Amino acid sequence: MTLLTACGGGGHPAAPPAPPAPPAVASVGVEPGALTLEVGRSSTLTATARDASGSTLAGRAMAWSSSAPEIVSVASGTLTAVAPGTATITASSEGRSGTASITVVTRPVASVVVTPDSATLEVGATRTLVAAVRDADGGALIGRAVTWTSSTPAIATVTDEVVTAVAPGRATITATSESRTGTAVLDVVPIPVASVALDRDSLSVITGATATLVATVRLSGGERGSVVQRDLGGRRTYLRAHHRRSCILLG
Question: Could you give the CA distance from residue 180 to residue 169 in angstroms, rounded to a whole number?
Answer without folding.
Answer: 26
